[in-house]
């Protein structure tokens, strides 16, 4: 009898464990995790490069519904879709989900950037970034932005008959960031750094196998080289700040972050945090802004009526300026239609395809279980092309943004939302408006590639880098 009781007591926890596992398994979203490590990564990346990634995901939605499980970049994930999914991602606090990226992004950008930090650490570092990037601070940098754009056009556009738009826009945004945000002078270090950042970006969405022939491996090496250069730059700026006569805390983002001290006279942001967040800002500003500007050029070339309206707005501002006078914050406030065109461009061609969060505990969502430590994968652009939200979603129509309140919340979120909204939003707006002002008032252009195809690698890349024939406009 004692033996039977002992066996029975031994079997109870096993039975409960199996029952719990079965119950949890039944609550998992539909779908498959695929092959170990690889999962659906290669399939998604192929679809992105063929510009069929949205259809790839719609097929999943048709098959499994708005929530399904998969495996991406070496980790199980739950794909969620729709307005409710976007709201869940941006409204949940760190007790439910955290903003942890996949291993490839985390390893390349670093684990102390604001994409990875949570709680007080996130607030501390974000506040430091915002102190420099907030509108009140950026007002004084419009003139420097203006100067950079004019210099770029003089060097790379004037006197040319043909250009490749995307590479030149990347050159422009990189130089703007180096000058305004990091105070890095033109020269060999800039040239090395731009190559390293391009290599880093290529491996950010990749299977994290550190083998010599992989993009991931090349990106890790490029990241290490970039971090070494940035540490040297930090050392130089710290020395300049200590000498005081040669530097100001407000002259660039790195100097600003180095100048933040607490009550104990301790540096609030560590060197490692500065490096990792500088790399994040560099990647975001370099690639996403250049993509927006490139597709703006393409869309204006393909739509004469929209182009004429933008030109009219910008010529009125140009006529109000004395010869050689820089644009001002007040001038940017008058570019309302141009910014609507930019927002519609972001809706149709979002630079960032999707994002990741990590569940910090088992989560019940839409009747299914998202297990602890699984990634949550969502694609913001899916709602932007939903015809129940944006009628005729493929049509380029800037009037959609005449009344932003008419757009349902969490359906158009090109800069994120909630406490993690992109701190560089205003910087991107200034950069875009200043660049477009000088492009449309000083040049006309005609595209030399008739197809409208682009691939994602992982950012949108138009065919052949968008070659265009350009002609100078007569200055007013």
Automatic annotation (TrEMBL):
InterPro entries to which the protein is assigned, alphabetical: Cyt_P450, Cyt_P450_CS, Cyt_P450_E_grp-I, Cyt_P450_sf
A GO cellular component annotation in the UniProt record: membrane
GO BP terms: sterol metabolic process
Record carries keyword Nucleotide-binding: no
Principal localisation: membrane
Molecular-function GO terms, alphabetical: heme binding; iron ion binding; monooxygenase activity; oxidoreductase activity, acting on paired donors, with incorporation or reduction of molecular oxygen
Subcellular location: Membrane
Keywords associated with the record: Heme, Iron, Membrane, Metal-binding, Monooxygenase, Oxidoreductase, Signal, Transmembrane, Transmembrane helix
Leader sequence residues: 1-24
Pfam families (alphabetical): p450
Binding site for heme: 422
Bilayer topology: Single-pass membrane protein
Cofactor: heme
Family that this chain belongs to: Belongs to the cytochrome P450 family.
Protein's UniProt name: Cytochrome P450
């Amino acid at each position: 009898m004692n033996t039977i009781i002992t066996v029975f007591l031994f079997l109870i926890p096993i039975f409960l464990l199996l029952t719990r596992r079965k119950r949890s398994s039944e609550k998992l979203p539909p779908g498959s995790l695929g092959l170990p490590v690889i999962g659906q990564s290669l399939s998604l990346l192929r679809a992105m490069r063929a510009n069929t990634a949205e259809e790839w995901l719609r097929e999943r939605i048709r098959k499994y519904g708005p929530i399904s499980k998969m495996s991406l970049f070496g980790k199980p994930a739950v794909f969620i879709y729709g307005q409710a999914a976007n709201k869940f991602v941006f409204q949940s606090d760190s007790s439910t989900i955290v903003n942890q990226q996949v291993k490839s992004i985390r390893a390349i950008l670093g684990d102390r950037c604001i994409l990875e930090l949570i709680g007080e650490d996130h607030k501390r570092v974000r506040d430091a970034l915002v102190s420099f990037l907030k509108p009140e601070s950026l007002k004084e940098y419009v003139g420097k932005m203006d100067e950079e754009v004019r210099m770029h056009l003089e060097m790379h556009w004037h006197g040319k008959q043909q250009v490749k738009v995307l590479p030149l826009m990347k050159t422009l945004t990189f130089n703007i960031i180096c000058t305004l945000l990091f105070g890095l002078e033109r020269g060999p270090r800039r040239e090395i750094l731009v190559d390293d950042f391009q290599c880093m970006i290529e491996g950010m969405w990749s299977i994290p196998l550190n083998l010599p022939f992989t993009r991931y491996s090349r990106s890790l090496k490029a990241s290490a080289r970039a971090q070494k250069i940035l540490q040297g730059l930090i050392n130089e700026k710290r020395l300049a700040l200590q000498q005081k006569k040669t530097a100001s805390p407000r002259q660039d983002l790195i100097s600003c972050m180095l100048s933040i001290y607490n009550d104990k006279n301790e540096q609030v942001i560590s060197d490692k945090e500065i490096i990792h967040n500088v790399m994040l800002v560099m990647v975001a500003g370099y690639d996403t802004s250049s993509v927006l500007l490139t597709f703006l050029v393409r869309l204006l070339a393909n739509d004469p009526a929209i182009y004429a309206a933008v030109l009219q707005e910008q010529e009125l501002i140009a006529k109000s300026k004395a010869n050689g006078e820089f644009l001002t914050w007040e001038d940017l406030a008058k570019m309302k239609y141009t910014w609507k065109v930019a927002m519609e461009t972001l809706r149709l061609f979002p630079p960032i395809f999707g994002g990741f969060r990590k569940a910090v505990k088992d989560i019940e969502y839409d009747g299914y279980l998202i297990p602890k430590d699984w990634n949550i994968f969502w694609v913001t652009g899916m709602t932007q092309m939903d015809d129940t939200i944006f009628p005729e979603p493929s049509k380029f129509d800037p009037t959609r943004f005449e009344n932003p309140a008419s757009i349902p919340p969490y359906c158009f979120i090109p800069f994120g939302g909630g406490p993690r909204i992109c701190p560089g939003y205003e910087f991107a707006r200034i950069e875009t408006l200043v660049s477009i002002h000088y492009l449309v008032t000083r040049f006309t252009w005609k595209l030399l590639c008739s197809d409208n195809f682009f691939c994602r690698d992982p950012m949108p890349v138009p065919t052949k880098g968008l070659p265009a024939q350009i002609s100078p406009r007569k200055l007013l």
